[in-house]
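Narrative of activities, Objective 1.

The group set out to show that a structural description can be obtained from nothing but a protein's sequence at a throughput compatible with the screening campaign. Below is one input-output pair from the validation batch, recorded exactly as produced.
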Amino acid sequence: MKKNKTKKITVAFAGGGTGGHIYPGLAIADELKELCKKKDVPLNLVWIGNCSKMDRNIVESNLGLDDLPSVNKFYGIPSGKLRRYFSLKNFTDLFKIAAGCIASFFILLKEKPVVLFSKGGFVSVPPCVVAKLLGIKVYTHECDFTPGLATKINSRFATKILLSYEETKEFMQKDFAEKALVTGNPVRPVFYSTDAKIGKDFVNFGYSKKTKPVLFVMGGSLGAKQINDLVFENIEFLCKRFYVVHQTGIKNQDSIPVIPDSVLDSYRQFPFIYEQMPHVMEYADVILSRAGANSLWECAVLKKPVVLIPLCGSGTRGDQVDNAEFFEKKGAAIVLKGEYASSDPLKNALSAMLDAKKRKLFSEAMAALLDKKRSAEKIADLIFDDCINNIK
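Output recorded for this entry:
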């Protein structure tokens, strides 16, 4: 048999600062690896992220579909941030951004990727700027309903702007909107092969017969104090009606009250769930959560009814509110915000979710938001085709 003579293709990924700027890129990396394996095309993947240990640990601990690291090499670069308010850090961070550009120049010059994929976060801006200068194609992805500042900057250098929502085009400059393509939000492959039994065994309520729905409360890896406080304030009400699985967040351990003995049979608490997270979500009947884009689309893939308490206020640009309202308008979520993010509205929302028929309607609305083809697979196809067409 004649061997494939195609040269190795190199694809670079840029993003970091939070898991939300890393996991979707890793989902695409896994799909791209699988596609190249099927096409018998050698592939080299590199990741440009923050110098922090978190970025490196998440990327390097991620395993690919063939039990080999999805990313061949991780590069940490200095990362600054441009804030929308006055801060002396805006001045000092300019030097970090400049240093990030210099580091990105030598990385990209050495690795010579055909395509740079940016998932966002300010660590992605220097690689996108430098990639444009070096003639490397830039794909940038926006997961939120409205584009963030990093995406607005990266869009100036992008060959393609990938969006999760069609409506996001309305918030973009006309020139940028013409480069935009709606692909959905990439979700890690593990969410397409979940096992509720793994989640059940991990949580270990110990019941012989399930007598009430399972409520999973999550506020991200660091947690959400507002959600935690609401749960603790209403814990007897919740545990009377649900089996409650509560991810409190790593940074909130000092503020957790003593849990009453009367509810312990129906309550399980974890600072953070990582490897088992997709399976615990599959096991749940209802999810109470913030409205970060990645969590929302993971819930959509699993077709889970959700009650959302989006992050609001001066510390946010309102992206979670926009995300939550989109899902609410589609009939896929109940949203509690502002004065409604309080005990009585929470009780009413979750009481409504006790009805299995109502939960089914929310699940069907979630399913209707998804295309038949996975978002990560769509994006991997685009990157692969561009690489093959432009390989030297």
